[in-house]
Design goal:
Layout lengths: L1 H24 L2 H29 L7 H23 L2 H19 L17 H30 L7 H36 L7 H21 L6 H24 L9
Helix pairs in contact: 1-2, 1-4, 2-3, 3-4, 3-5, 4-5, 5-6, 5-8, 6-7, 7-8
């Protein structure tokens, strides 16, 4: 089972390298190979997740390793869906490195399968944690697009370029999706917390930082929709917001123990 995981990790790395090389040298053959390799690696990753779920007798999202794996898996799904819809290489250029980096983080977490703790035995489990995985995945690709946008500006590309406008708009749409799903995460988490701990909200570090992240993305959307901010400023906001997501996802577990410490 672990062989499948590490094969997928190596495949994601190779796909990201080939995609970057193909985009830099404008070689469609390399980019096509990268997409095929990503699809194969995704298949291996899916097989690993299914196998682990069968072994654990539950959805494999119960700890930091499993959630990181699901986070990477969701990133690949969103990347493929966007690419098939838009046929734009910059989607894959943003998604592939993110999937590799997230799965690399998972590789450093304890991988043994443990019994699920009582607080997680709930019908809210899949909705709450599954929504978080796809929310974070949307934010990750949006942050990756922000990096790509700024890199293209540094190369001298104009913000009025059609490609740049598409990249900017897609980052915004991804953040809308991620924000909606993060809202589901917070509300479902509150209901779940009331059932598990008899408290809707306890200002646990994970809860607090999820709320901070939600507020920051709400500010992003406000600036976009009300003040019509676009381009460079929104790219920077998407990158800063992604840093908050990473801290909420990984930093809180490592530095700020609380009720969600079981997710380490």
């Amino acid at each position: 089972m672990n062989l499948l995981f590490f094969a997928a990790l190596i495949g994601y790395f190779a796909a990201a390298v080939l995609q970057f090389a193909g985009s830099s040298m404008k070689k469609e053959g390399l980019r096509k190979t990268a997409r095929v390799l990503l699809a194969v690696s995704f298949g291996l990753h899916t097989a690993f997740s299914v196998w682990r779920g069968i072994e654990a007798r539950r959805v494999p999202l119960a700890n930091q390793f499993e959630f990181a794996s699901g986070f990477a898996w969701a990133t690949v799904i969103i990347g493929f869906v966007l690419y098939r819809r838009l046929k734009q290489e910059w989607v894959m250029t943003a998604a592939m490195p993110m999937a590799f980096l997230i799965l690399s983080y998972a590789a450093f977490q304890p991988m043994e399968i443990k019994d699920i703790m009582p607080a997680l035995r709930s019908t809210w489990f899949v909705l709450h944690i599954g929504s978080a995985a796809f929310s974070y995945a949307a934010f990750a690709i949006a942050g990756g697009l922000g990096v790509s946008y700024l890199a293209q500006l540094k190369k001298g590309r104009s913000e009025d370029d059609v490609k740049m406008k598409q990249m900017d708009y897609m980052g915004y749409r991804l953040i809308c999706l991620g924000f909606l799903l993060l809202t589901v995460v917070i509300f479902s988490g509150a209901i779940w917390a009331e059932q598990a701990w008899s408290s809707w909200w306890s200002w646990d570090p994970k809860e607090t930082w999820a709320l901070i992240t939600w507020i920051f993305y709400a500010v992003y959307l406000h600036q976009r929709m009300r003040l019509k901010w676009q381009g460079r400023r929104m790219a920077w906001l998407a990158i800063i917001a992604l840093i908050l997501v990473i801290f909420t996802f990984a930093g809180v577990n490592l530095l700020l123990p609380g009720l969600h410490s079981y997710a380490v």
